[in-house]
Write a structure and sequence with these properties.
alpha/beta, TIM Barrel, 12 helices, 8 strands, globular, binds phosphoenolpyruvate
Length: 256
């Protein structure tokens, strides 16, 4: 089954509004030839940069995502941002459960699940991150950890809701470290993730599910990774912060 590739840049806590606009303006002509039916190109700036980037990307084939969302509709949650706020500012995607949020901000599978439901209710397209620590992989616990994250994070979703979800498999030991899972290891793990989603939601949802790889993906390894049967794109950190490296990565990934 052929699934549309999705390459998303996670800018993390980088780029002010003016820097973000500069990056998107540089990226637009470089990815103008990317066929919108073959690939979703997404950039995920920090909250304060979102509106300016939505404006800068208007009319181009670049879509915009946020990096987090709160689960409540509104209320006394100082510093948080709701799904409706994101939706109204023109955001289409939202990253949920990134390993940095799990590691530094107490994100759990339960809060991932709450955020996911709020995002879906507002009509956002969630990118749900899962991934094992180095100790999990070395201890032979990768599948157990991923199954727990998937079962907890995706609990209670209907098939229609799950059809909107993208999963990002990001081995924590590969994020920002320069270490990448080999295409074979990544493919085996993606296959396991698809199998788990199959057990939970059935064949149609599992076969249509887009699973991104994330963890030191760059122009040099994107083609080989995205060529794997179960790898449908990438969630990119460092290599998404410059227009030329992000564009080169996207074009290489599409050579699969
Ligand atoms: C990420 O943070 O989601 C990520 C994959 O980062 P990097 O590409 O820098 O490893």
């Amino acid at each position: 089954m052929s699934r549309k590739v999705i390459i998303a840049g996670n800018w993390k806590m980088n780029k002010t509004a003016s820097e973000g606009v500069e990056l998107v303006n540089a990226l637009k002509p470089l990815v103008a030839d990317v066929c919108p039916d073959c690939c979703d190109v997404v950039v995920c700036p920090p909250f304060t940069t979102l509106s300016a980037v939505v404006e800068a990307a208007r009319g181009s084939n670049i879509k915009v995502g946020a990096q987090n969302v709160h689960w409540a509709e509104n209320g006394a949650f100082t510093g948080e941002i709701s799904a409706a706020m994101l939706k109204e500012s023109g955001v289409e995607y939202v990253i949920i459960g990134h390993s940095e949020r799990r590691q530094y901000f107490g994100e759990t599978d339960m809060t991932v699940n709450q955020r996911l439901k709020a995002a879906l209710a507002a009509g956002l397209k969630p990118i749900v991150c899962v991934g094992e620590l180095l100790a999990d992989r070395e201890g032979g616990n990768t599948e157990k950890v991923l199954a727990t994250q998937l079962e907890g994070g995706l609990a209670g979703l209907s098939k229609d809701e799950m059809a909107q979800v993208v999963i990002a498999y990001e081995p924590v030991w590969a994020i920002g470290t320069g270490k990448t899972a080999t295409p074979d290891v990544a493919e085996l793990t993606h296959n396991f993730i698809r199998g788990t989603v199959r057990d939970m939601f059935g064949d149609v949802i599992a076969d249509g599910l887009r699973i991104q790889y994330g963890g030191s993906m760059k122009a040099g390894n994107a083609a080989e990774l995205v060529a794997q049967a179960n790898i449908d794109g990438g969630l990119i950190g460092g290599a998404a912060l410059k227009a030329d490296s992000f564009s080169e990565l996207i074009h290489n990934a599409l050579k699969k």
